[in-house]
Amino acid sequence: MDLSARLLARLAPWRDAPAWRIAFSGGLDSTVLLHLLARLAKREALPPLSAIHIHHGLQAAADAWPQHCQKVCADLGVPLQVRHVQVATSASLERAAREARYAAFIESLADAEVLLTAQHRDDQAETLLFRLLRGAGVRGLAGMPNSRPLGRGWLLRPLLECSRAELEAYAHEQGLSWVEDPSNHDTQFSRNYLRHQVLPQLTAHWPQAVVTLARSAAHLREAQGLLDELAELDLAGAQTPSAFPWLPLPSLALEPLLALSAARQRNALRHWLAPLTLLPDSEHWAGWEDLRDAAVGAAPIWRLAQGELRRADGRLWWLSGDWLQKDPQALPWRDCKQPLTLPGNGCLRLQGRGPTGELQVRYRQGGEVLLLPGRGHRDLKRLLNEARLPAFVRGRLPLLYCADELLAVANLPGLHGPAEGRWQLIWQPPTNDQRLS
């Protein structure tokens, strides 16, 4: 079966997608993918095709690539979008460039659209070797999946079963032109070293090394699928609703996890954390043990790449985004008929006919008291303890004052407004996702 037929078969489940977007660097691999799809589109009913070129600006040679990509796309009749990105200074330039590139892809994808990238079997073998040398676990050694969610759409790698040699042969046969990235030959970069120094030595002794390495990655993907199924079973008992349905944070009940072996705990947490953050290496899992085994009255924190895992009142809570910012500041509320945006802390509104007077939103400093009918003045700290509100929420919980009198505590029944129910103080907390806050 030729490349076109194999590509079409790979993409068959995605023929109803609203659009196919091609990640087009201008290099050989993505040029072959673009050419194949443009030819298929002339005889097949495919979703609308377009290309995206990410310009990192990391080297002078790259300044000419957008113009080259424009010409190739114009010749093939494929619209092109050029996105300029800033690459953060990082110890790993490869990783920083990749993160910037995929952030731009995510911003470019609309609902259910598909991004097609041109990684092939040799790339899969390099990925397995690279991650093996970094001490990756099963999830990392499973290599690159054929498809995965990306932003509001999907990422597909339809050429993963094809070799680099096949793509090169097609490019020469079709007379294609492409750009050569000078950095691809710089063996200071780990992947380039594997590609130019290690894999040639392996294939000289084991000619099928690339094929067998890619096959091993497939076996490990299957093993990871079984581990994911086990994780789902183990998490089922822990994914109970919290006592605070208004708190929009991922959380788990701790007790069901404690009944599992240590290995199954780690497997379940890896599965749960994978959509939320980069996963820690084996040494940093000591942070989970410290959090798990801390004294009952403690408030332990496990800091990870994109956020923090906290333990409070028998639950694990994931915090990121605005939840990691400093404590919010007091604000006047001049018109309580209108919702009040709390910078970095969501939104506040009054339900019902609110109080009059000079209102202000404040936050806990210590020593606050609230007048409750039939109970007199009660210490706020004790009231929050009675409500079993997680400690990390208490410093962000809006308090409504008139002059120096505490009138209400947002969202907590019995504390969020007068007993007769004329009005209630409703807080919409920030989400973990900065874009959704």
TrEMBL record:
GO annotation, biological process: tRNA modification
HAMAP family named in the record: tRNA_Ile_lys_synt
Catalytic reaction annotation: cytidine(34) in tRNA(Ile2) + L-lysine + ATP = lysidine(34) in tRNA(Ile2) + AMP + diphosphate + H(+)
EC main group: ligase
Protein name, as recorded: tRNA(Ile)-lysidine synthase
Keyword terms, alphabetized: ATP-binding, Cytoplasm, Ligase, Nucleotide-binding, tRNA processing
Organism field: Pseudomonas cavernicola
Gene: tilS
GO MF annotation list: ATP binding; tRNA(Ile)-lysidine synthase activity
E.C. number: 6.3.4.19
Entry GO terms, CC: cytoplasm
UniProt xrefs under NCBIfam families: lysidine_TilS_C, lysidine_TilS_N
